[in-house]
Amino acid sequence: MAILGSIIKTAIDLRGAIISEKSPVESQREVLKNLLEKAKDTAFGKYYGFEKILESEDLQEAFAGNVPYFDYHQMEGAWWCKTQKGLKDISWPGTPKYFARSSGTTGKTSKKIPVTTEMIEAIRTTGIKQVGALTNFEIPSDFFEKEIMMLGSSTDLEEQDQFLEGEISGISASNIPFWFRGYYKPGEEIAQMDDWDQKVATIAKNARNWDIGALSGIPSWMELMMKEVIDYHNAKNIHEIWPNLQVYTSGGVAFQPYEKSFNQLLAHPITVIDTYLASEGFLAFQNRPGTTSMKLVTDNGIYFEFVPFKPEYINEDGSLWQDAPALTLSEVETGVDYVLIISTVSGAWRYLIGDTIAFTDVEKAEIKITGRTKFFLNVVGSQLSVNKMEVALREMEEKFDIEIPEFTLAAVKINDAFYHHWYLGTETKISAEKIAEALDSALKEANKNYSVARSKALKGVKVTTINPEIFHEWNAKNKKKGGQVKMEKVMDEEKFATWEDFVKTQIG
């Protein structure tokens, strides 16, 4: 057993034993109180009467009753635009050093989300907690001596007036603790590269010089990087290059859709740990083995609220009705889809982050991401969430022994009748008609609303299978490769027509 690794592991174990955690519900009350106290003298705090809210007997109820919901465009249009102009004390004391750019899954236009010093510290603290949680897994001590490949966006941040701008993964990597830099790969010089293809080619060239024990990054881009490394060295799998690879942390995207294709690149199974790092903060991470759920970070600068994910509460653009009820952590139930609302130390208030989640264990505050509010297909009453889509596609993988790491779909009108047209990223000889029939049957069985829609306005299902690489090229064309970029799962008819034209150019 490696001595240094044993010392590090023991130190982490002791730290975990010494620090006693409060209950998530109690922690959330304290976080809200701290947020309100720190921001009471900001323009936002004065406008919405934080001082008066702090005098209330029930802070959570008073907060929800006095502050409306905000999506990005509402928050940016009324408040963050002033911060971007250099004005102080707008929605958080002082001015932020960074703005996180996030195109996410919504299109070409980047969002600019403030990242304060307090948020950088919160992300760093949660990162340390996540590393500490590794001791809950069956990982040998010498793992803690290995290097970690963090595949994110460029750390060469752009100067915009008095701010630095970049994706959150680049901002976080540029602020890693000094003691961690010796473990961090691909290193500062390669991490600063903005060109994805150049970065990956350089990683592949240097791969044998590193003793990688863990990978961290979005699954789709991590797969592409590993394939490049394997091809460059003419290897059979990634373990021929990095034999000590034992852990993969997936960032911001559920790993399950990529599991089958990802495992094809390994010589043996590794420990997979889901994390939930968004441009708005580090929200959750998998805390223990035996589950794929993640523990909400309830004691570190983020206050959570939960709106039941029902069609009557959601506007067509994915925003919320202002009278939609918000629940606190003490009021939620397991197995129910909720729209996630956050308030943070970066000056986001009752902010619709755009994700839907479901609790798997309320007492432990453990969740899974179930989809996006904008990726909810209900054109003809099918009420089809991304989670339902993913479950059905995992069935298709098992039924036909295929891999479907990427997909998108839309409700399209053909001869005055609505159809769901799916594009599946998969390399298979199974006919698209056969997959469509099985997919339709799986969704009917799993979703009552979908079954009703199929008997009425939704006339059929169409499937087109294409090479998964086309999804990556679409992202490269519309946004860019790598970083935090994710594929949109549901498109409107106009966007879908553009997508279909693009696909035609790719397949000739």
From TrEMBL:
Coiled-coil blocks: 429-456
Pfam families, sorted: GH3, GH3_C, GH3_M
Stretches assigned to the GH3 middle domain: 297-363
Entry-linked InterPro entries: GH3, GH3_C, GH3_M
Annotated GH3 C-terminal domain residues: 390-494
Keyword 4Fe-4S appears in the UniProt entry: no
PANTHER family in the cross-refs: GH3 DOMAIN-CONTAINING PROTEIN
Protein's recorded name: GH3 auxin-responsive promoter family protein
Species name: Aequorivita marisscotiae
